[in-house]
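Researcher: I'm preparing a figure for a lab meeting and need a structural model of a single chain. I don't have an experimental structure, so a prediction will have to do for now. The sequence is pasted below. Please return the structure as tokens so I can convert it later.
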Amino acid sequence: MAEQIKHPRHGRVRQLFLGLESCFQRQFWPARFAVMVALVAVALLVGVLLFNYGSKLYENWRQTHLLHGATAFLQEGKLSKATQTAQELLRRHPDSLPALYVLAEAAERQNLEEAVSWRGQIARLLPKDVESQLNLASAALRFGKLDLARRALDGVPSSDRDSAAFHVVAGWLARTEGNFAEQEEQFASAVKKEPKNDLYQFNLAALQIHSGDPEKSTKARDTLQRLSTVGPYRTGALRALLNDAVARNDLTAADNFAQQLQISPEITFGDYLLCLNFYRKLDQKKFRVILDRVKPFAARDPSDLASLIDWMNQNGLAGDAVKWIDKLPEGQLSSMPTYVAVADAYATVKNWSRLKSWTRTGMWGDSEYLRLAYQAIATRQSRSRSGDPNTDFETLWYSAEQLASEQPERELALARLASRWQFEKESEELWQRVAENPPMRREALEELRRLYRKKNETAKLYDVLQRLHETSPNEAPITADLARLGLNLDQNTERSRQLAKETYDRAPNEVNCAVTYAFSLSRLGRNADALAIVQNLPPDQLHDPHAAVYVALLLAEANEIEPANEYIAAADGQRIYPEEQKLLDEAKTKLAIASATPSPAISPVPSQLSPTPASTPKQSL
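Model: Understood. Here is the structure written out token by token.
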């Protein structure tokens, strides 16, 4: 019974507890759920943070690993691997400066034009960094992009333009533009800023050793002598000194430099050719022995073989070159540079049948335009003797020009060939096109200048001189030529007078400049001042036909009959320009009038203008 009474009570108690538990769960479940959600959210957030942090750690590690790898490959000279690794880094980080530096350096070491693009991106990211702008300008110069180089230099703030590095890059830009006077000024400024920098000293000395100023050339020679004992500059200094000694005919010094150059570890095949230049002057027997030793050495490499044949062609040994060519196996001659050198040898000795045969066959590759050009030369020269029309020449030459069209290097090679063989029409057209390319402009304008002087086309000559002056405004002889021709042609008279004064102020002892300014003064009625300028010049230099015309005119204007006749004789019958011939006739007329008209006693002739024999180089105009 007791058990029967007890059981229901227990049941009620249990039901009570179950009810309370159910009530408790209904009341507290939302709170528990919220806690659980919060815990999950925190866990997710922590996971995301840990994942992001881990990813960044990995990405940083990966970036560092790639950079270290690219740098190591670059230092080891494994340039393709360095480029590949840096490009992978750049794909992950498009503005990674370290990757761009590696790519630029690797491209420059391989002489790839891509270097300009990489340097450009670096300069874009660092627009106020002077070194980046100078590096861009240097890379642009290396690949003939003069406009880009100029823009990069223009981007350097004026406050940073007095650094030695800026002057050096500006100097190389001036050289590329043909402005040699500015190049010298910039290199001299770099040396002035950093006088102990051997590289800057070498750049200036290698330039000034060719100077007409004895003081400059002597100082340059001394500098190069010193640098010939300094490792990085030894070979370059010896080359410059050897060339200079041969040019001055100082054979003792040349022998010393040639021997030093031959034992230099950095000697090139081109250096052997420099030595041949010297030994040819020193001793013909010794030269022949050395040439015979060099021939088998050159025959091992197609490029060296072509270089030696070219050297022989240019130094009066084309006949010997042809005999040597006949003995060489055909396989040694079947390369692109050798094809061209052999063709030039046949052309130089005027063996037109051999030249025609040689240019009919062969895999000339990129030099196909030269194959057609040499074939055209052979056709024209052989038919000019027989009097046959030059239709075939014109067809072949036109084909060569088409293959060279809009490719400056090819057009330059064709223009040089046309000038060498005196194809005036063809060379003029080619040089005009080449002159549109800034790195080649100076050479093209100089060739056009020679052509127009030869043909006495003074109006065209004046235009070329204007362009040369724009290219090199500080080069006194060019300015003098432009001013004098302008005065003769009545072109831009006021500007011509201004230029005459500028060039005289720059180089008062240069005959061309002094005579031009004196002529300008005489046209203003200041003949006495003009004579005072001329009388300070060495008399022997004034007997050059071009200078003698103006001196004769000044003396005739002053009624100095006897000395005027002497200078007239120096110019009369010589190759002078039509405008100068008119001035000479004017002087003759003045003397004729003076001789026929009694006049007061004439003052003595200045001793500096007294008659002396004439034997000087012709003036540049």
